[in-house]
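Batch manifest, entry 17 of 40.
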Amino acid sequence: MTVSTSDADNMQEELLSIKDQPKAKKLLLGLDLGTLESCIISKLTKPGSVNHDGLLVPTVVGYPDEGILAGILPGNAEMLHGQHALDNELHLRLTYPLSDGVIQDFEGACSFLQNLRDQVDPGRKHDALCVIGIPAVSDEKAKEDLRKAALQAFDGILLIPEPFLAALGMRDEAKLQEKDYQDPVSNSLFIDIGAGTTDFCIVQGYFPKADDLFSIPFAGNEIDVILDQLIREAYPDVNLPISMVRTFKEENSYCGEPEAGVRVKVPVDGKPRKVEIGKQVGEACNRLLDEIMGTLQQVIASASPQSVFSLLKNVILTGGGSRIRNIDQELLSRLIEDGYEDPDVRLSQQDFTPLVAIGALKVAKAAREDQWIRE
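Output type: structure tokens
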């Protein structure tokens, strides 16, 4: 093929023009894509700091009811996300796109992730690279669905197990040289109690292998279902939405011996009524503790003989379920009663919410260009 001088000049000008165009600036993101709530962050204030500019968004989308009149929903939107969806619940069909950490509503998940991108990168002016936390044990279909949905929102992604990211998010790099600092990434056992799953991860200074990861589909949502059943059994005329049951759990949850004194107001035939649910709350939460203990025994048995004794001294609970009152002490008591030597169980820290997202952002900052999944 012969190329004329004028064509060659034009091609050269186009190449120079492309070369001179400024490249999109990278925007590194860490995302904890939760079953009920998600956290996305783009900046840490300093190395080792847990301060962040995190955006917390309920993981929910709302589809307008059929026949909804113009002007009822903001901007006559075809879909609302997060708190906007909850605020307009009366006129929407709400859907939580994830169940047990796995995408169930693909369209909703795609829209939700794109909405997150638009909130942190208005106008999409950056090359947005996002590390996303996934349940400890995710099958290939779950990973592929998330990959497809996430790449509709972000320019590059990495998928990393959530418990490992929580450990990395908890780590204070500024204290690593301190003699008494207990590094959560060095040799620990993380238990991440979320809404959809409880994930277990042996963390020993490297990205966890399959043998280091365990997960059970028993977490906060299952407590809600059990508590709802127990309340119905005790008070057959009480019929509550699961959202109200969840609120009662979050305000009064505990593990251990049955407690009384938890009186809540519920509607019965439209009239207010006070009912006692202390025993029911404790029973529902103790069932979660039973499940955690059973799986924890399997995890400990799988640990290497060289590490297991020190590993037991660094069992860390995180996630929303870790804030159930006394769950750490009750789990510790069960370990001691079962014959484990000098175990120690502790909570991650007061504000657990951003830990996975912080850990994800740390991974994003350390990732090489060739590690990002872009298609």
